[in-house]
Amino acid sequence: MALRHAILAALREEEASGYELSKRFDVSVANFWPATPQQIYRELDRLEADGLLDAKLVEQDRRPNKRVFSPTAAGEEELGRFIEVPSRPTAIRDDLLVKVVALDDDNAEAVTAAIEDRLEQSKAKLGLYQRIRAAMLGDLDEDEYLATGQQLGNYLALRRGISFERDNQAWCRSSLKAIAGRRTGIPG
Predict the structure, then answer these.
(1) How many domains in the chain?
(2) What is the DSSP string of 131-181?
(3) Cα separation, 65 vs 77, whole angstroms
(4) In a shared domain, residues 132 and 176
(5) Mind listing the pLDDT tens digit for each residue in 96-108?
(6) SS3 (DSSP) at 6
(7) Does 37 reside within a domain?
């Protein structure tokens, strides 16, 4: 998947400026497709040049003017083509796993620290995702939201992010226990 498809999908819901879109990415698609604001701005320009997005200038009184983007018919068609292509399984590309593969007695402390750091990062992400989930649900329980909620796709992607971070934490804890067990002679 290209960043362009993630942007087109994010803009289907509501037009946005580059700034607004980067903030939206932080709370919606970042759990599966991270992008820096600079990457988003560059891709917005490319999508506009390719005729997949329209941009309009919005004049503001107390702030600088901004450009607001929305998909064109060609952008909708491009997203539709992308949706029709079968998805391939995702390959894990994670530098932490390279460190774990290289684990030995000499670097066990450094690898342990890296796993502990990942655990803390995962806890923070999970906390953010759970706050977003609570805001999305509002007064509805999950079953009610799944039946009537306005942002079903975003909610389902968010659920995957929550599941992913819970699994990350379980893996981190079991790995830390196994490494500690090797170092102390008490199996993890």
Answers:
(1) 2
(2) HHHHHHHTT--HHHHHHH-TTHHHHHHHHHHHHHHHHHHHHHHHHHHHHHH
(3) 29
(4) yes
(5) 999 999 999 999 9
(6) helix
(7) yes
Q: What is the pLDDT of residue 31?
A: 65
Strand partners, 56: 68
pLDDT at 30: 67
Same domain, 113 and 158: yes
Q: Which residue numbers in the chain have pLDDT < 50? A: none
* pLDDT for the residue numbered 16: 93
**Helix, strand and coil percent figures for the chain, each rounded to 5:** 65, 5, 25
Round to whole Å and give the CA distance between 96 and 110.
11
Identify the pLDDT of residue 1: 57
Q: Distance from first CA to last CA of the chain, Å, rounded?
A: 38
Residues 10 and 30 sit within 8 Å (Cβ to Cβ)? no
CA 13 to centroid of chain Cα atoms: 17
